[in-house]
Amino acid sequence: MEMHQIRYFLATSRTLNFTRAAEECNVAQPSLTRAIKLLEDELGGELFRRERGNTHLTDLGRLVKPHFDQVFA
Questions:
Q1: What is the pTM of this model?
Q2: Angle, helix 3-15 to helix 59-72, in steps of 10 degrees
């Protein structure tokens, strides 16, 4: 798990939009998506539910978010 993955996760959890989160982090959207996918693989589950332009945190995403907020602070 790397700091940029945590930063990308937190940006996506704030915006609930992969494109806007990538813009906020100054990276290409596929790079952000790939980093989050690697983070999901490490944690063993999806962090976001992606449904037709509606992205929201999964139970796992809600569970790890406070910890990642603390780590990033």
A1: 0.91
A2: 120
